[in-house]
Amino acid sequence: MTELSVVLAEQAPEDVGKSGPLGLLLTLVLLIAVALLVRSMTKHLKRIPASFDPVEPEQQVPDTPAELFEPQPGQQVLDTLRRAPRAIEPPRRDDDRPDRPTG
């Protein structure tokens, strides 16, 4: 067994098992990168709201009954858009076509 360890010691160079300055530099760079990422993530997590529940807008109560019947600004545009046909229609099914034979 001692002969085997002597042979291995002769074949292995001196630097085997030792870390060099490049390894230390790489480790320091990685540690700095992780620290910066943790700091950035902490800032972003602090900006997240406590709840994502939708906030209900306050309903505006008109001051006079006449305001109920007066057109609101932009109401005409909204009514026109509601009556307009949709720009994107859902896909049509093939079995809805009467001209196509079945079977």
Name the features:
103 residues, mainly alpha
Could you characterize the architecture of this molecule?
This protein is an all-alpha fold and 103 residues long. Helix content is 48%, strand content 0%. It contains 4 helices and no strands. It has helices spanning 2-11, 21-46, 66-69, 75-83. The chain is elongated, with a radius of gyration of 37 Å. The mean pLDDT is 77.
H/E series: HHHH
Q: Helix- and strand-based class?
A: mainly alpha
C-alpha-based Rg, rounded = 37 Å
Please report which band the strand proportion falls in: under 5%, 5-15%, 15-25%, 25-35%, 35-45% or over 45%.
under 5%
Largest sheet: none
Total strands: 0
Unreliable stretches (pLDDT < 50, length at least 5) are none
Q: How many separate helices? A: 4
Mean pLDDT: 77
Query: What percent of residues adopt helix (DSSP H or I)?
Result: 40-55%
Oligomeric state of shown chains: single chain
Shape: elongated
Summary of the model, kept short:
By secondary structure, the protein is mainly α. It is 48% helix and 0% strand.
